[in-house]
Design a protein that fits this description.
Blueprint lengths: L9 H9 L4 E6 L4 E5 L1 H7 L10 H4 L8 H11 L2 E13 L2 E15 L5 E10 L1 H54 L1 H10 L3 E6 L5 E4 L1 H7 L11 H4 L4 H14 L3 E12 L2 E16 L2 E11 L1 H23 L3 E6 L4 E4 L1 H6 L8 H6 L6 H14 L1 E9 L5 E13 L2 E11 L1 H37 L8 H30 L7 E5 H7 L2 H6 L3 E6 L4 E5 H18 L5 E9 L2 E7 L33 H11 L4 E6 L3 E9 L2
Helix pairs in contact: 5-6, 14-15, 15-19, 18-19
Length: about 650
């Protein structure tokens, strides 16, 4: 009797599946926890087996801001399938962020009740296919452009040939007229509206020339007639004598458009731009003379180049100002925009006018509409509004434009676009700072005022027990006000590059042991100096003392439970590195990049929760003026290490 064939276990099935060249992963819950991933999928992610059991966002943090995590949630919540082809994704591979392209599918797998219990994720890396397709498309476009250029060149050649043919016909007619009457020919040459010069082929002697030609080259008739052409105009010989000789030997005319010709006018070298023809005059198959026909187009060329120069200057100015530009056709409701315009609105391509309008903040759409209505009446468009990018960020824009009319009807708007987000941010910072400064100054001033009022009442009773307390309280209030004013003065000096440094050799360990006496006297914290105690720097001792005191004060203030504060001295790449380390609660990562910004104040539970937000900014300016760097390393629950570097002596 045949034995039943044993079925593979789930673990065996997953092992077999993991060795497949197809990238497969299985996710559960709305957060896309990775339940299973094949070797190929892990290889695509650039990770290892440690991602199993993690959410997709935790395993691949670089996906934050990309659409894939939201897609997973949609598939889980709606029980649908989402797929894509040639979809770009940015992934960290070998420590570097790269863009790859994938054909993928997120499929909701449901139970009998129709409830999603997992998501089947399949992906195929098509980066090579996508890039090859782009290359093919680029080559195709280049070929198409080349064909169009060739077609245009052929059309220009045909036009030139037509012009040449017409010139040849005119010249043949002139030649026939010359055969009939030399006098009539000479009269025709001299009365022609274009500049004409007849040159004998065998010796280049000028046979005849009209007044227009003489006026062009600023010569008298006797300077040309019975002289060779290059004796009369030697400055043009190096460039054009070889061309004329070739026309004589080949019998083929030479046509020049906007040729650059050097001429000496009244003893001054000048450059002219001419349309001219060297037309061979042939008799019995031999070139006997060259007819030169010229039109001075110098003014036209110079004017065009000035326009081109102005256009280039405008283009460079617009690019330098990071200004976006637009051209709105009001009749057909079509808008042409620059790349910078698209980027400010959060798009990487040209989109419709309606699409641009759709990302305006809902609260600003009425103001935008009103601005357009006013512009239709007074021809000037101006408004400021917020736009919402696909990543959820908000940006402020300023739109300016001019309306153009036909038959009193608006038909077109030309305008510019600026990203004023940073300007708005600075405005808000200024307002916040004024509010903070007012609040910070109000408290000690109020206290000082109260103390002075009480002193006023007891001024005739010098034995009052309140007198020492009130004087002490007034002194503390004045110290607080002085510290705030000193911060303001320091930041003002830093802004105006007025921080004066008096550098001298300083032993860092001596400076650290001597500073922060107020902390040592208080006795609640121990300042422990460690590291290379012999390192010396050339620095302003007062300035560096100010930096260290500020950093130690921050450690005392924000890490009160850190009994030991370490002042560590090391040498790092030819620089002295001084670090102030505590074992306090640490700093949230999102706040670290802003700690050294002017006026920055974190949330009340975080760093810099009082004062003007200037201390660390002033420290950074002092260190920068010394040619060093300043930074912080912090981990929540472990502590913070503020450090700065100074050049060694």
């Amino acid at each position: 009797m045949n034995q039943p064939v044993p079925l593979l276990s789930n673990e065996q099935l997953l092992q077999v599946l993991s060795t497949s060249n197809s990238a497969v992963a299985i996710h559960i819950t709305e957060d896309a926890i990775i339940q299973y991933a094949s070797d190929r999928m892990i290889e695509i992610w650039g990770k290892n087996k440690s991602v199993l059991g993690k959410t997709l966002e935790a395993a691949l943090p670089e996906l934050k801001g990309q659409p894939f995590i939201d897609m997973f949630k949609k598939v889980w919540n709606e029980g649908i399938t989402i797929s894509g082809t040639d979809t770009p994704a940015q992934l960290h591979v070998n420590g570097e962020l790269h863009t790859f392209y994938f054909d993928f599918e997120y499929r909701a797998v449901k139970d009998a009740a129709g409830k999603t219990y997992c998501i089947l994720h399949t992906a195929t890396d098509v980066t090579e296919r996508f890039l090859n397709a782009e290359k093919v498309q680029s080559l195709t476009e280049e070929l198409r452009a080349s064909n169009e250029e060739l077609r245009a060149a052929n059309e220009e050649l045909n036009a030139s040939n037509e012009e040449l043919s017409e010139s040849q016909q005119d010249l043949r007619q002139l030649y026939n007229d010359l055969a009939e009457s030399d006098l009539r020919f000479r009269n025709m040459v001299r009365q022609a509206p274009v500049s004409i010069c007849i040159i004998r082929a065998r010796d280049l002697m000028v046979l005849d020339v009209n007044d227009s030609y003489l006026q062009l080259i600023a010569r008298e008739r006797e300077q040309l007639e019975n002289h060779t052409i290059w004796d009369a105009i030697p400055e043009a010989a190096p460039s054009y004598a070889p061309i004329m000789n070739n026309v004589i030997h080949s019998g083929k005319p030479y046509i020049a458009k906007e040729a650059e010709v050097p001429l000496v006018i009244n003893g001054t070298p000048e450059t002219f731009y001419l349309d001219f023809v060297y037309e061979p005059m042939i008799s019995d198959g031999t070139v006997t003379a060259i007819m030169v026909l010229c039109i001075d187009v110098t003014d036209k060329v110079v004017a065009r180049r000035k326009i081109e120069d102005v256009e280039e200057r405008i283009r460079l100015a617009v690019e330098a100002a990071e200004t976006g530009t637009f051209d709105l056709d009001l009749v057909n409701r079509v808008m042409v925009t620059s790349d910078r315009f698209n980027a400010i609105f959060g798009f990487d391509r040209q989109v419709s006018w309606e699409m641009f309008a759709s990302v305006i903040h809902p609260d600003d759409r009425a103001a935008r509409q009103e601005a357009h209505e006013v512009a239709m009446r007074n021809s000037k468009l101006f408004y400021e509004a917020r736009v919402l990018h696909s990543d959820g960020s908000t940006h402020w824009i300023r739109v300016q434009g001019k309306v153009y009319y036909e038959n009193n009807e608006p038909v077109r708007i030309l305008g510019t676009l600026l990203d004023i987000t940073e300007f708005r941010h600075l405005q808000q910072q200024k307002d916040d700072f004024i509010s903070i400064a007012s609040h910070e100054l109000k408290t000690p001033i109020t206290s000082l005022k109260a103390s002075l009022q009480l002193l006023e009442r007891i001024k005739h009773d010098p034995t009052s027990e309140l007198l020492p307390k009130l004087i002490d309280q007034s002194s503390r209030s004045m110290q607080k006000i002085s510290a705030l004013v000193e911060d303001l003065l320091n930041v003002s000096r830093a802004s105006k590059t007025e921080l004066r440094l008096k550098k001298a050799p300083v032993v860092i360990a001596d400076l650290l042991n001597a500073c922060c006496s107020h902390v040592r006297i208080a006795g609640r914290h121990s300042l422990i100096v460690q590291g290379d105690t012999k390192l010396k720097v050339n620095a302003d001792e007062h300035g560096i003392d100010q930096v260290v005191v500020n950093l130690v004060n921050n450690a005392v203030k924000y890490a009160p439970e850190s009994k030991d504060i370490f002042l560590i001295i090391t040498e790092d790449g030819g620089m002295a590195k001084i670090a102030i380390k505590d074992t306090g609660p640490g700093i949230p990562p999102e706040k670290i990049p802003h700690l050294f910004d002017r006026y920055y104040r974190a949330e009340p539970s975080g760093f810099q929760n009082s004062g003007l937000g200037l201390g660390l900014y002033i420290c950074s300016e002092i260190v920068r003026r010394h040619g060093g760097n300043i930074g912080v390393d912090s981990e929540l629950g472990t502590g913070s290490t503020f450090w700065f570097t100074l050049p060694l002596e």
